[in-house]
Write a structure and sequence with these properties.
This protein is α+β, with helices and mostly antiparallel strands and about 280 residues long. The chain is about 40% helix and about 25% strand. It has a domain of about 160 residues: Thrombin, subunit H (Beta Barrel), CATH 2.40.10. Strand 6 and strand 7 form a beta hairpin. Pfam families: MreC (PF04085). This is Cell shape-determining protein MreC.
């Protein structure tokens, strides 16, 4: 019963609205006054609705355009970040290649300096695990004519000696190692001294100088090279520069510190002199 009543009511409302619409159309068609009435109704209903729809459409278009611009900006940022990453990678590769080129040039210069000896270049393939190369492995061995105690150079100075030699690789013990010492001398005055390895001091990029004669004329900035009385190292190879020297408390000798010629924190390539120091 209620459903039937509701259905009748809906049909009644629809019929009333239909009649009103027909009357408005008739009034508009047959009466000039009807046109005015319709226009007034439109001004209060259709026009505001149309303006609202226009504003809504404009807002939706603007929002769409802003989202589009945002997406384009994000895409440009992503592209720029990719280009920056590629440039950083290229820069790193360039710097690595440049360093390797500089090392190769240095090796060539050393080959010329020690042209009286047969030499061979080698690459560092493993290290002791420390930041400092106090013991490391190179990619040359007995198959390349290497022998124990051959001198190893880099950067224009003494690195150390071959302490172990295999068929295709060798181990280098550097002069910064605690277990090593070098019989050395001042390149200008020929005053003898001893340079000792010290893994603590090398953190400050220094090595210890001892046993210089009290009358030694060594001074700061003097170049220290291997001496002719060394039992392991060929004579005249640069070791470092004096940074500090003073007379010891016993007044019998002088001691101090040197800065090594070689950069023991960054070693990639070395030069081996294929000759062993002969001692009588």
């Amino acid at each position: 019963m209620n459903r039937r009543k509701l259905s009748l009511t809906s049909k009644f409302i629809l019929s009333v609205l239909t009649i009103i619409l027909i009357m408005l159309i008739a009034v508009t068609y047959y009466s000039p006054a009807g046109t005015a009435i319709t226009r007034t109704l439109a001004n209060y209903t259709v026009v505001p609705l149309q303006n609202g729809l226009n504003r809504l459409g404009g807002w939706m278009f603007g929002a769409h355009q802003e989202q589009k611009n945002l997406d384009e900006a994000r895409a440009q940022i992503d592209q720029l970040e990719s280009e920056i990453a590629a440039l950083k990678e290229d820069k790193l590769k360039y710097e690595t290649d440049l360093k390797e080129l500089e090392e190769m040039r240095s090796l060539m210069e050393m080959k010329k300096t020690y042209s009286q000896y047969d030499t061979v270049g080698a690459s560092v393939i493993a290290s002791s695990g420390s930041n400092w190369f106090y013991k490391f492995t190179i990619d040359k061995g007995s198959n390349d004519g290497l022998e124990l105690n051959m001198n190893v150079l880099s950067g224009g100075g003494l690195v150390g000696y071959l302490s172990s030699v295999g068929p295709d690789s060798s181990v280098v013990t550097a002069i910064i190692n605690d277990s090593t010492s070098v019989s050395a001398m001042s390149s200008d005055t020929k005053d003898i001294c001893v340079i000792s390895g010290d893994l603590n001091l090398i953190q400050e990029n220094r090595l210890r100088l001892t046993m210089a004669d009290r009358d030694s004329e060594m001074k700061e900035d003097s170049l220290i090279v291997t001496s002719q009385i060394s039992d392991k190292y060929l004579s005249g190879i640069p070791v470092g520069y004096v940074t500090e020297i003073s007379t010891d408390a016993d007044k019998l000798s002088k001691s101090g510190y040197i800065t090594p010629v070689v950069d023991f924190e960054h070693l990639g390539h070395v030069l081996i002199i294929k000759a062993v120091k002969k001692t009588e």
